[in-house]
From TrEMBL:
EC number per UniProt: 5.3.99.10
CDD domains recorded: TMP_TenI (cd00564)
Top-level taxon of origin: Bacteria
Annotated transmembrane regions: none
Keyword Isomerase included in the entry's annotation: yes
Pathway as given in its UniProt record: Cofactor biosynthesis; thiamine diphosphate biosynthesis
Domain Thiamine phosphate synthase/TenI: from-to ranges: 8-181
The protein, known as: Thiazole tautomerase (Transcriptional regulator TenI)
Keywords: Isomerase, Thiamine biosynthesis
Organism whose genome encodes this protein: Alkalibacillus salilacus
GO terms assigned for molecular function: isomerase activity
Length: 204
């Protein structure tokens, strides 16, 4: 299942800081994405092994872009982008790997779906400091994109607990969150709010 809550690392925390947040929120989130573009493969292998030592399941971990590293470390999945290997070639090589694709248009989403992605992440929906200077795409575009594909669409960008219900009402299967959990002073409380929103929104 790809629905629910995806936590995404912000590329700015130390491993220790990220482990702290991950441990706190892991009971409330479905997936934990390691999105640390500037780090070496060796560093990321260490991230995975330390997260696992801290009771984060490999089944919860998703690696941004680095497919071979995800396969080698036997974690759950990869999040592909327009800079990474194609969905179709990854799907052909690794039939059982969870494959998400980050998309920014209906065309990209449809291509990902046809190519065998399990889900797409679409954004950014709301204005967010994590994507400075770029116009948000908004709920209407989210709703339109969701209707144009038959795989789950996860909403990303400026997601707060209060906004979860609105994206779920537009048909999202879940939300991906960076600052809403990473920068929170009370990540457990915040994660519970996010989870409440996802549950209420999806039961509509
Ligand atoms: C990782 C990411 N991808 C986006 C996209 O639009 O594809 S927006 C984003 C950052 C989301 O951060 P926050 O939860 O702090 O708004």
């Amino acid at each position: 299942m790809t629905e629910g809550i995806h936590l995404i690392s912000n590329g700015k925390q130390s491993l220790e800081e990220f482990i702290k947040v991950s441990k706190a929120v892991s009971p409330y989130v479905n997936y934990i994405h390691i999105r640390e573009k500037h780090r070496t493969d060796d560093e990321l292998v260490e991230w995975i092994s330390e997260l696992v030592k801290n009771d984060i399941s490999k089944g919860q971990l998703v690696m941004n872009e680095r497919v071979e590293l995800a396969v080698r470390t036997e974690i759950k999945g990869v999040q592909l982008t327009d800079h990474s290997e194609d969905v179709s070639s990854v799907r052909m090589k690794y039939p059982n790997l969870l494959i998400g694709r980050s998309v920014h248009s209906v065309e990209e989403a449809q291509d990902a779906a046809i190519s065998g992605a399990d889900y797409v992440i679409f954004g950014h929906i709301f204005k967010t400091n994590s994507k400075p200077g770029l116009l948000p795409r908004g709920l209407e575009q989210l709703g339109h994109l969701i209707k144009s594909v038959d795989i789950p669409v996860i909403a990303v960008g400026g997601i707060t607990p209060k906004r979860v219900e609105s994206v779920m009402t537009y048909g999202a299967s879940g939300v991906a969150i960076m600052s809403g959990l990473i920068d929170s002073e009370k990540p457990i409380e915040e994660a519970k709010h996010f989870l409440g929103g996802v549950r209420d929104g999806s039961s509509r």
